[in-house]
Protein: Polysaccharide biosynthesis protein
Organism: Sporosarcina newyorkensis 2681
Amino acid sequence: MLENKTILVTGGTGSFGKKFIRRILQEDVKKVIVFSRDELKQYEMKQEFQDTRIRFFIGDVRDQERLHRAFNSVDIVIHAAAMKHVEACEYNPFEAVKTNIYGAQNIIEAAIDCNVEQVIALSTDKAAAPVNLYGATKLASDKLFVAANSYVGEKHTRFSVVRYGNVVGSRGSVIPFFTKMRETGILPVTDDRMTRFWITLDQGVQFVLDSLTRMHGGEIFVPKIPSMNIMDLAKAIGPECEINIVGIRPGEKLHEVMVTQDDARHTIEFEDYYVITPEFAWWGDKLKGMSRLTEPFEYSSETNEQWLSVEDLRKMVEEFQT
């Protein structure tokens, strides 16, 4: 599918972007474009990868004119750029809207104008029934990308979304934080009941690649992934540490959801993933013969059937740290 294709990754110097690009460079791709704002990270990535098929493009998703220039002759766009830290978005709400919502609009319009074939936007479990601004902006972004399929007219650009949970070891996530705090002998835990969906970067990259082959345009793809309890993670990282319960931070949930009860009415279940289908006339019956989830259903980290044990988490942490 990627043979002789030009792929552009927004946020290409981030945790996901670097892992995704390393993976697709194993294929016979024509060109990979790293689109991001940070020239230092691009410089460091260029030294690390040393591949003549990579191009580095300084730009911001807020700048539609720059996106038009970058999308010229691009076949596939993976949109991974975002303001994603909950506290930063709460404190800088206008900036989050500019990047996560207006940036999504810019991606859509540039992709259609430049005849990009496929666009996959990365989302988050926080976009389902959001309680914080980050989740709200990503929910708006998801809806923009789904609805974008209504705007293509005679063009052939197709847009879909991938939604998954917390990524093991991504920048600013809990594993590096707990690892650092372990040196103090105390691990601060917001609430001992807290659960989260858990996915590795490799799994996230593979799910995006799989979704590229499956997409018709308009779907939100949700992988079936395990849940973990925050106390189990604390035991895995610092079994000797004292636990300090500090309380839930602003904009945080006890449990995350990836398919809400309202979404379940138009969600189709497969063996290892769900597809939330669009509620637009143009969708038709592209997954004919597939049965939708029966109500009531909710895919929540609290009621998930798959769980990671302390030992499972310890192995994942060790792999991340090596």
Remarks:
- The chain has one domain: 6-165+199-224+257-299.
- The CA atoms of residues 58 and 168 lie 27 Å apart.
- The first helix runs from residue 15 to 24.
- The mean pLDDT is 93.
